[in-house]
Amino acid sequence: MQHRYLGNSGLKISEIIYGNWLTHGSQVADEQAIKTVHAALDGGITTFDTADVYANLAAEKVMGDALKSQRREGLEILTKVYWPVAEMGPNDVGLSRKHIMESIDGSLRRLQTDYVDLYQAHRFDHETPLEETMQAFADLVRMGKVLYVGVSEWSAEQIQQGQALASQMGYRLISNQPQYSMLWRVIEKKVVPASQELGLSQIVWSPLAQGVLTGKYLPGAELPEDSRATVSAKNFDFMEKFLSDDLLTKIQKLVPLADQLGLSLAQFSIAWVLQNKNIAAAIVGASKPEQITSNIKASGVEIPAELMKKADEILGDSIVTDPELTKSPNPRPIGK
After folding, report:
1. pLDDT tens digits along 180-216
2. How many domains would you assign to the chain?
3. pTM for the complete prediction?
4. Is there a domain that residue 335 lies in?
5. Beta bridge partners of residue 175, listed in sequence order
6. Of the residues 18, 54, 148, 180, which is catalytic?
């Protein structure tokens, strides 16, 4: 397992991160989840990403249970705050000082740790003054509950504004967590250049485009049973844009490229995102140990330039690049 620095900081993280967005506390039994985390540890993963909103607080608890026997200093634990949680009351959402301060204490309790290595603003909050949000994060850093601060799915302009305020308050944003894959490249035109200038790197989610880039979804065929697309209607709605027969046919043409490197298509797809020098790590989920054990093999892979070019040619106009698709939710209606 290779490790990389996160932004312009001294923190190193494993270039493949274990994440539990759709698995722990919901789709996977706790015992199986813990076995999968231990398989990640056995494979050299030291960085683990979660969020309070995952399974409405339950995923953090499962992660804490899975990691509690490990040496804390040998781990990098990442979590996030923003989305509605708990009883979803008026102050159970957003990036107000109240919600941030209460949320970190809950996350630390569930994760069974005194601090998190990286605390991330899960989206940009259009209702809360940015100064209030950045000051709350600054105070958490000074209290020692948070070592580093990052954001997720912020636009280039929001990152610029946030970094300017953070610098005035004596700390720095070091990371952004966007969606990124061979198919979804909306960060490349604006977010990545701004991040490089300001000292942030990317921790990307969905490098397999919700599993479509594993190659298991075939054109003209029924969706595989027990796949992410069939587990819930919400998953299917999120994935539908990647499930056209035209795109699935193109994806099958990527398989010979992976074969040339002795990789599965999933391994090739994860390695592909890691070729971008502003990408510090790719988050990979798993519902069983053998999945994470296989995906770990993407670490350290160098894809030749000619294969990178060939992948672009195959996918063609199916690649999404519009930078305006990098955005946080619109402001909530007054009173909501």
Report:
1. 999 999 999 999 999 999 999 999 999 999 899 999 8
2. 1
3. 0.92
4. no
5. 150, 201
6. 54
